[in-house]
């Protein structure tokens, strides 16, 4: 069982991504089933997820899954069409239904690194074809957030960093919020360490653009990363939100296929 701490609007950054780049998977799904896995002591994140995905797919069905029966009992009065809660874990007890999206935030952070791969594989085995597991971490109020997109067929495919740009000193401040698969790899010789260093360097080189606003500085920073050959997957529309997404190969742990 996770600590369960959460706050309203804490997961807005990843929800914005699920309703953006990940939305095509939901739109084309035969069964628009989405899981909020390990939602914590309060069901607010599942309630918010449902609200944010309804504009993408009006018939979306969000299921909050928690390992603690007491937490599920607290959430049950909030059930309504398209939103329900049940007891379970990574096995996703959904009666044979296969979700197209699974959001697991601040869950695997509390596990040991060797447990991450098996947890990913278990969830992947339950996903619908073309489905995604989004495994991420954020700070207490959602200003700094990172997540790995793990596809049903390919495994991990990308890492996203999403930051509140106001007050940002350097992008690598997000290091303490890296997903469990990467948080212990931010050391010399690892790809994620090189990536964060490159992001900091690009941020420093574009400091002069800060006079036009922090967003302009960030846009130039991400553009520089792309020019330098980092496999940036998104474009300026996402960058403006404080996001940058790169292919998993750019940051995967040394020794991992």
What report would you give on this structure?
- The structure is a single chain.
- By secondary structure, the chain is an alpha/beta fold.
- The chain folds into two domains: 152 residues, Rossmann fold (3-Layer(aba) Sandwich), CATH 3.40.50; 71 residues, no CATH class.
- Helix content is 30%, strand content 19%.
- It is built from nine helices and eight strands.
- Strand 2, helix 4 and strand 3 form a beta-alpha-beta unit.
- Helix 1 packs parallel to helix 3 and helix 7 packs across helix 8.
Summarize the structure.
Helices cover 30% and strands 19% of the residues. By secondary structure, it is α/β, with parallel strands linked by helices. The chain folds into two domains: 12-163, Rossmann fold, CATH 3.40.50.150; 171-241, no CATH class.
Summarize the helices and strands and which ones pair or pack.
Layout: H1 12-18, H2 23-28, E1 33-37, H3 44-53, E2 61-66, H4 69-75, E3 83-87, E4 101-105, H5 116-124, E5 132-138, E6 144-151, E7 155-163, H6 180-183, H7 191-205, H8 214-227, H9 236-239, E8 243-247
Parallel strand pairs: 1-2, 1-4, 2-3, 4-5
Antiparallel strand pairs: 5-6, 6-7, 7-8
Helix pairs in contact: 1-3, 7-8
GO molecular function, one term: methyltransferase activity
GO biological process, one term: methylation
Keywords: Methyltransferase, Transferase
Strand tally: 8
How many domains? The number is 2
- What does the radius of gyration come to? 18 Å
| CATH H-level homologous superfamily name of the largest domain | Vaccinia Virus protein VP39
Structural class: alpha/beta
Rounded to the nearest angstrom, the distance between the terminal CA atoms is 30 Å
Helix content: 25-40%
Approximate shape: globular
Number of helices, where a helix is a run of at least 4 consecutive DSSP H or I residues? 9
Looking across the biggest beta sheet, what order are the strands in?
Answer: 3-2-1-4-5-6-7-8
CATH architecture of the largest domain: 3-Layer(aba) Sandwich
Q: Which percent band covers the strand fraction? A: 15-25%
N-to-C series of helices and strands? HHEHEHEEHEEEHHHHE
Classified by CATH, the class of the largest domain is: Alpha Beta
Average of the residue pLDDT scores: 95
Poorly predicted parts: none
Major sheet characteristics? 8 strands, mixed
CATH fold descriptor of the largest domain: Rossmann fold
Keywords: Methyltransferase, Transferase
Organism: Kineosporia corallincola
GO molecular function, one term: methyltransferase activity
InterPro entries: SAM-dependent_MTases_sf
